[in-house]
């Protein structure tokens, strides 16, 4: 099947549109493979570092879903930037339902 | 070293003031007084000379939070591999290598201390084993190990005996946890502790030749032990990390070489051992010296969010790793300082965590900080500590089990008399004599 389209809004406002995201891949890997600014993913997707923080666009929140308890704990370490629509994108897998999703990168440090 | 009374400029409103300036040109990180109490030295460098050349050490000390992050975010400009090699067994490397080759099966460079893309190949293999979700599944087993240890020391302390928090709690705790992970069911904790110290000493810059020879022999012993364990898994695979590594196939279809596998098992045994033990020692120290904090911890012991924040602030407040080496791969500029190609840097994580430009009132233990997770105790970038989730879990469970079962934790010596390991790499208390009573 054809790829899924994902839009990342980088910290300087640039929109990076990725049209060939592969189903099952984590959004953090998609971002890193496409050089999205501000997504570091230091811990390699282990939900341990908080360096792949994104805000999910309001209309996509239900589709993307909420963080689980473990992700919530890691997000709690970045409370200065944490919002209701915060997610760590290493914990979100590309799926057909996410086609068109828009995420805003929250820079770490 | 001379000191003069100087009020810290950022002290407004902070309960902890009174940083004292240190005469930088007369001071080295290798000085015993600085080793024990380095914070005024860090603060003076951050204020006056943030990328400071330590003549005795022959290294540039990177002390400001922002510069630390900048270095760690540029792994090709600031090479971990070259910095580490220049640090390793410094002054005695050839002799050290020769001992390992003749008595320890070979000299196997640390594969984790490589630069991208080689590093990426290895890191990807290891990431899954240490994810927060995997570590969560280990919580019951870790709790069992720690609860047993707490019971043992609590019985002893209840009879009025003095406990060494390092040798009787922190070190056996971390060794038991990592051995369980690796699948080493028969082990000698004393030996593993000696091996850990021998390895850490190679990047500590403080060993003399005699100590190097002793340490090299310990490392030979460690490598021979690892080789036996690997050979066992080669013929008889088990459900453990050593088996996983022996039989691992990497993303690119390659397998680990024998030397790579030995170096990885060695790193797994050592890396999360001394450092996490130091964090747990620091936990005991803070509970002994800040009784109101110990009470607050007790009052919140069933609140997982509280415990997580407590652990994170403990790591910011007292990071086990003091400084690790990097090397500039070309002429560059950092924090206003020109650095030549080949400049050997020591990234002072402990100074970054104490930087008042990043952390308001840094000497205050404040788990309500909004930027709690920005500390650099685990590093930043491609070499960020892979075992962070496991370390956090061990510290959290230690705090929980301990505070539930004991109280009135007290140091039996003044804080000023605590001795620290001789090394620029970590800031580790050697012995922590404490007493306490069962609840």
From TrEMBL, chain A:
Q: Where's the 2Fe-2S ferredoxin-type domain? A: 4-109
**One of the protein's GO biological processes:** P450-containing electron transport chain
Q: Do you know which PROSITE patterns this protein is assigned to?
A: 2FE2S_FER_2
Gene Ontology molecular function? 2 iron, 2 sulfur cluster binding; electron transfer activity; metal ion binding
Which range is the signal sequence, renumbered to this chain? Answer: none
The record ties this protein, via SUPFAM superfamilies, to: 2Fe-2S ferredoxin-like
Q: Which cofactor(s) does the record list?
A: [2Fe-2S] cluster
Gene3D superfamilies on file: 3.10.20.30
InterPro entries recorded:
2Fe-2S_ferredoxin-like_sf, 2Fe-2S_ferredoxin-type, Adrenodoxin-like, Beta-grasp_dom_sf
What UniProt keywords apply to this chain's record, in alphabetical order?
A: 2Fe-2S, Iron, Iron-sulfur, Metal-binding
Q: Which family does it belong to?
A: Belongs to the adrenodoxin/putidaredoxin family.
Q: What is the protein name given in its UniProt record?
A: 2Fe-2S iron-sulfur cluster binding domain-containing protein
Query: Which organism is this entry from?
Result: Pseudomaricurvus hydrocarbonicus
> Which lineage?
Bacteria, Pseudomonadati, Pseudomonadota, Gammaproteobacteria, Cellvibrionales
UniProtKB/TrEMBL annotation, chain B:
Note whether rRNA-binding occurs among the keywords: no
Q: Carries keyword Cell membrane?
A: no
Q: Which InterPro entries does its entry note?
A: Cyt_P450, Cyt_P450_B, Cyt_P450_CS, Cyt_P450_sf
Q: Which UniProt keywords apply?
A: Heme, Iron, Metal-binding, Monooxygenase, Oxidoreductase
Do you know which Gene3D superfamilies this protein is assigned to? Cytochrome P450
A GO MF annotation of the entry reads: iron ion binding
Pfam families, per the entry = p450
Name the needed cofactors. heme
Q: Which family does it belong to?
A: Belongs to the cytochrome P450 family.
Specify the protein name: Cytochrome P450
């Amino acid at each position: 099947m054809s790829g899924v389209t994902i839009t990342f809004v980088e910290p300087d406002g640039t929109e990076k549109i990725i049209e060939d995201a592969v189903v099952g891949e984590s959004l953090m890997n998609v971002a890193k493979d496409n050089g999205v600014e501000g997504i570091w993913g230091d811990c390699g997707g282990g939900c341990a570092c908080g360096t792949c923080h994104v805000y999910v666009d309001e209309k996509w929140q239900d589709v993307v879903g909420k963080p689980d308890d473990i992700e919530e704990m890691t997000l709690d370490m970045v409370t200065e930037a944490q919002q209701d629509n915060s997610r760590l994108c290493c914990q979100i897998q590309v799926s057909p339902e996410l086609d068109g999703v828009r995420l805003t990168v929250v820079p770490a440090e | 070293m001379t000191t003069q009374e100087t009020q810290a400029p950022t002290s407004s409103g902070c309960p902890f003031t009174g940083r004292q300036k240190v005469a930088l040109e007369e001071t080295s990180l290798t000085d015993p007084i600085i080793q024990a109490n380095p914070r005024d030295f860090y603060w003076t460098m951050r204020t006056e000379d943030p990328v400071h050349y330590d003549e005795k050490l022959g290294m540039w000390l990177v002390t400001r939070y922002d510069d630390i992050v900048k270095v760690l975010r540029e792994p090709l400009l600031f090479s971990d591999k070259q910095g580490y090699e220049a640090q390793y067994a410094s002054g005695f490397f050839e002799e050290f290598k020769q001992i390992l080759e003749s008595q320890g099966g070979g000299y196997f460079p640390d594969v984790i201390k490589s630069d991208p893309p080689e590093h990426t190949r290895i890191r990807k293999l290891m990431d899954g084993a240490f994810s927060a979700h995997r570590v969560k599944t280990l919580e019951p087993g870790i709790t069992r190990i720690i609860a047993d240890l707490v019971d043992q020391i609590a019985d002893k302390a209840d009879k009025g005996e003095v406990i060494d928090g390092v040798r009787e709690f922190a070190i056996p705790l971390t060794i038991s946890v990592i051995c369980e992970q690796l699948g080493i069911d028969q082990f000698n904790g004393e030996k593993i502790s000696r091996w850990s110290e021998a390895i850490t000493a190679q990047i500590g810059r403080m060993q003399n030749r005699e100590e190097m020879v002793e340490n090299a022999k310990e490392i030979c012993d460690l490598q021979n032990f690892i080789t036996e364990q690997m050979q066992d898994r080669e013929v008889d695979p088990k459900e453990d990390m050593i088996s996983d590594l022996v039989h691992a196939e990497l993303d690119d279809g390659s397998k680990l070489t024998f030397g790579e596998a030995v170096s990885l098992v060695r790193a797994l045994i050592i890396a999360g051992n001394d450092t996490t033990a130091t964090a747990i020692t620091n936990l005991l120290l803070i509970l002994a010296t800040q009784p109101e904090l110990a009470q607050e911890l007790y009052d919140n012991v069933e609140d997982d969010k509280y415990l997580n924040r407590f652990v994170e602030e403990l790591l910011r407040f007292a990071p086990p790793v003091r400084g690790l080496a990097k090397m500039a791969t070309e002429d560059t500029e950092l924090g206003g300082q020109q650095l030549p190609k080949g400049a050997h840097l020591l990234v002072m994580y402990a100074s970054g965590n104490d930087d008042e430009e990043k952390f308001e009132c840094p000497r205050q233990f404040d788990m309500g900080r909004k930027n709690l997770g920005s500390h650099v105790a685990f590093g930043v970038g491609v070499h960020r500590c892979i075992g962070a989730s496991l370390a956090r879990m061990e510290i959290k469970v230690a705090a929980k089990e301990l505070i539930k079962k004991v109280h009135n934790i007290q140091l039996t010596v003044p804080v000023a008399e605590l001795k620290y390991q001789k090394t620029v790499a970590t800031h580790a208390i050697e012995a922590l004599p404490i007493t306490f009573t069962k609840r």
